[in-house]
Amino acid sequence: MKKLFLLLLPGALLLAGNAEAQLQKGTKYWGATISTDGHSLHSESLPSVESKSNNHNIAPSIQAGWMFKDNRMFGLRLSSVVALRKGISEQQGNKNENVSNYTSVGLSPFIRHYKSINEKWAIFLQTGFEGAYFRTKDKYTNITEHENGYGLGIYVLPGISYWVTPRFALESDVNVLSLALNYTSMEDVNNFNFSAGVTSGIQSYFGIRASWYLQKSN
Amino acid sequence: MKKSILYLVILAFGSVSTAFGQMEGKRFISGSAGLNFNNRNPVNNRPEHGYSYNFNIGLGKFKTATKTGEWTILSSLGGGKNYLDAQTQSITRKGIGSFALGGGYTWNYYKHFSDKFGVFGGPGLTLRYAYSKITDSSGDNIYEQKSNEVAVSFQLAAGAYYALNERWWLIGSLAFSNPASVSYVFGKAESLTSDAESKNSGFHYKFSPSLNFPSVGLGLRYFFKD
Description:
The structure holds 2 protein chains of 2 kinds. Chain A is mostly beta strands.
């Protein structure tokens, strides 16, 4: 499959690319996806230790765009990750509570180049810049600590769109190249961190996003 | 969603469509199985061995030329003999360490490229029960954890087939996804070195619209005589 997918890309690029209706100048675009997971665990040890752990993660993302010319889109993506963790343990009347919450909000302007394959399928290459703000809160019994951070990054991601109806499409993309700068500030330490990633193969994980293409009524 | 996967696969092969009849009403049995044995004989240590199997069997029917419904059962089991060296003593672990049983229903939509070759994809629902027993140590405490899991999951899968002859198809899986699942886990950990014991239970959930490529697996399908 990996190979087929790779073979498909150059093949598709060779096809004549006239703009399909959904990709004509002026079309507006909306996209959204969400993923969530979590658990709630309970454990009881004899003689008298009881512990509970709750863990919830949710990651929504929405994006909007505008075709500023045929097959070329300018867009803005707003994504967020919220992770909530809480652990309580109780031993002979002593209660310990740990809370650790993480929130991040990222805003990313991007440019997308489309190449239609036929009226149902198109591939795209999305290049973007992302700024993110994140905040963590850790609480151990009665000490609370906050941490703030900022991140900057650029990324390139190829993807594929499939139009289920003329207005509604499903799309999937994969992060193959990214560069990121992160700055975190804590009460008395400031952190600076740089990371770069190039993925050599097609990753085995493709997230799927629902998207809408709304054309100007002529 | 199911269509999207199907088409993603079709795309890879080029969008050719060929009329393909005579499939409607055909019943079949599909299966895939895995067996694994291993044996280790270190020079200065005791020999260890392990074994496991898994199989999936499905009974299905072509409702139309391009659509099937299939009941599936799955089973797996693993075990062996090995040793755990904790701080002060050595524990022999042997016997069956895990097994799982499940069943479900899958809908598949087909695109036949020729009378030999095609692709398919679709959603399915699975109910699964799994049991595991693990002996492990933390510090000088050796404990045995028994776990039970009951899970319901919704999955999407895509694959391709090659018809070897009129009765036999070779089935390959291409992509797999588990976009939604919920499970309930409960179990007990008993210390083997003291009389400490703990019970645990938990609820897990997941929703993740994503696909996994590649998912490699081979199976066979046999068509019953009409």
